[in-house]
Specification:
The chain is mainly α. It has helices at residues 3-33, 39-48, 50-67, 69-78, 83-94, 96-114, 117-122, 125-152, 154-163, 169-191, 196-221, 235-240. Helix 1 (3-33) runs antiparallel to helix 11, helix 6 packs antiparallel against helix 8 and helix 8 packs antiparallel against helix 10 (169-191). The longest helix has 31 residues, at 3-33.
Amino acid sequence: MTETDKRARTAGAVYLLVSLPAFFSMMYVPSRLIVHADILGTVDRAAAYEGLLRWGVGVELLAYAAWTLVPLTLYRLFAEVDRGLARAMLILGLMTTPIVFVADAAELTSLSLLHDARLAAALPAGQLKALAGFGLRFHGEAFVAAEVFWGAWLFPFAALVWRSSFLPKFLAVLLAIGGVGWLVESMTTVLAPASVAAVDTFTSLATGAGELPIIFWLLLVGARPASRPQRSEPASASART
């Protein structure tokens, strides 16, 4: 096993392990707590299932602290391919962590508001619930901003895969499609929120198909150097024989 192959498999393993908690914090917890188009109803449900929300926040914080290892391990893998592109991938990939941390702080603030006795005495219950709803809504909107970087970092990543001699080019194409998917989802939410449902099928397929294949390729296949064509024997050498 070559050093490049070791780095590829390490990157794939880290990528997979760090991605697993996202299914709990970003899919299961919201599905249990969010009341569609009713932020006050969401606040009520968050208060009723506070333990689940706290677990979601805790897992998300740990997952995104660990996420920093993914761009770093990929940087080690691709630095010799193109150091400039590798730096761009690293920086863009790390940008999501502070955004998610701020978003989670807003959710924790919402919970603390609901338990603050002095605020409860000073404000009507409806206003206090509205303040808590602002924190929960802020979390969701911050993730819309994070989606820009979830998409943007895939483009230098795709370019590095394309230029490398040890990974197939179809993975680069899928990564670029995934990047487009994230950007379409984010910009549709910002510019045409009524159309989010119309593009949801495309964005879900694009983002899923963009990253999952390379995770498993890096982990299971690793880095396979491109086969070099055999040199033909010089005519003078064949003549001597």
